[in-house]
C-alpha cells in the first residue's frame, strides 16, 4: 500500500456525511492520520508528529500487548454479557483492588458519558432527589443527563433547571480558591426547592482550564456534599488511570473516598470501554427498581483490552514514569514561559499541563486567539497539543503516558518557537 498523501476531498466528505453541527477538526490544517506507535502519530504523507495531546492511547498508541490482547480475544469469542466469561469479572476485581475499601462494585459500560449517566441515575434513585452540581465550564458527557452537567456545551447556553454550578479555583488570578463558591451553589439548589442528589468533579478540571487542585479544597467540597445528604461523583475520565502520577486515581491525591468513580477514555487504550465503581449498598438499593444492563459493557474483547492496559501500567511502572516525566515537563514549560510574557501561567500535575496565554501578564486578559495560533503553529512544527478553558486560551498538554523525559525537549522547543512566531 505504502504512502499515498492527503485526500483533498476527505474534509468535505466528512462535513457532508456528519452535517454542520459535528465537532470541528483540530488545527487549521487537520492531520490526516494513518498509523501511530507510542507517542508518535504518522500522517498519510509519512510525516511523524509528537502526540502531546492524546489521553485515549493511555499506555501509548498501538501498544503491542493491548493490540495482541484484542486480537487474541476477538479470535476466541466476543459477545454480549449475559454469559459467564472470566475477563469482565477479572477486570472488575482488578479495578476494585485499586480502590479504597467500600468501592467494591463495578458496572461496565462503553463510554465516559454512559458511566456518568449511570452514576447520576443511581445517585438520584438512591437519594430521591434531583439537584446536581458541577463546575462552571465542566464537560461530563453527551447524553441528556450528562449534557445537563456540562455547561461547556449547554443547549443555547441555558442552564438546566436542576443544575447549579460553581467556579473552579483560578490559582493564576487568586480567585475561587476556597469552597465558598461551592457552598453558595449548594445553597441556591436548596433555595430553589431542589435538594442535591450529587456533585460531580473532574479531578484536574480539564475543560475549566486545568488545575492542580488543593487536596484540602476537594476534601471540603466532599464534606459539604455529604453534609447536604448528597453523593460525590469523581469523574476520572481525564484525571484517572495514572494521569496524575499519584496512583491510578486522582481522588487518592485528595484523600477522599467518592461514592462513584467513573472512568472511560484511557481504560481500553482507544478501545471503547468504561466503568462506574461504586458501593454495594448503593447498587443494592436499585435491585428490582432499574435495569443497569449494557449489551456491550464488559464484553470479552473490551475487557481483555482493559486488562492488558492495567498489566502494562503495572509492568512498565507507568506511575513512576509519569511522576519523573511530570517534573521534567513542568520545569521545561516554566523555562519557556519565563522567556515569553504572553505565557502567563504554567500549571498541572503528572502528565496533564496547561499553559495559559494572556494578552498582557499585568492584566492577565485571556488570549484565546493566540492560543489557537500557537496550537496550529506547533502542529506545523510536528507537535500536537490542544486548547481548553472557557476562553480557549489554555494550551492543553496531556500526552499518552508513554511520553517520557526524552520527548520533553522537542515539545518545549516547538512551544518556544510557536510563541516566538505568534508574538
Ligand atoms: N467526563 C470527562 C471529564 C470528559 O472529558 C469526557 C470526554 N471528553 C467525558 C466525561 C465523556 O466521555 P465520552 O466522550 O467517552 O462519553
Share of β-strand residues = 15-25%
CATH-defined architecture of the largest domain: 3-Layer(aba) Sandwich
CATH topology (level 3) name of the largest domain: Aspartate Aminotransferase, domain 2
Q: What string, H for helix and E for strand, traces the elements in order? A: HEEEHHEHEHEHEHEHEEHHHEEHEEEH
Radius of gyration: 21 Å
Uncertain stretches of 5 or more adjacent residues: none
CATH class of the largest domain: Alpha Beta
Mean of all residue-level pLDDT scores: 97
Q: Structural class, judged by helices and strands?
A: alpha/beta
Give the overall shape, derived from the CA principal axes.
globular
Proportion of helical residues: 25-40%
Spatial strand arrangement across the major sheet: 4-10-9-8-7-5-6
Separation of termini?
42 Å
Number of domains: 2
| Major sheet size, sense and barrel closure | 7 strands, mixed
Oligomeric nature of the chains: single chain
Total helix count?
A: 13
What is the name of the CATH superfamily of the largest domain? Type I PLP-dependent aspartate aminotransferase-like (Major domain)
Protein name: 4-aminobutyrate aminotransferase
Keywords: Aminotransferase, Pyridoxal phosphate, Transferase
GO molecular function: molybdenum ion binding; pyridoxal phosphate binding; transaminase activity
Family: Belongs to the class-III pyridoxal-phosphate-dependent aminotransferase family.
What do these coordinates show?
36% of the residues lie in helices and 17% in strands. With 423 residues, it is α/β, with parallel strands linked by helices. The protein folds into two domains: 10-59 and 317-421, Aspartate Aminotransferase, domain 1, CATH 3.90.1150; 64-315, Aspartate Aminotransferase, domain 2 (3-Layer(aba) Sandwich), CATH 3.40.640.10. Strands 4-10-9-8-7-5-6 form a seven-stranded mixed sheet, with helices on both faces. Strands 1-2-3-13 form a four-stranded mixed sheet. A hairpin with a 2-residue loop joins strand 11 and strand 12 (352-357). The longest helix has 22 residues, at 318-339. It is globular, with a radius of gyration of 21 Å. The chain binds 4'-deoxy-4'-aminopyridoxal-5'-phosphate (PMP). The site of 4'-deoxy-4'-aminopyridoxal-5'-phosphate has 15 residues, from helix 4. Belongs to the class-III pyridoxal-phosphate-dependent aminotransferase family.
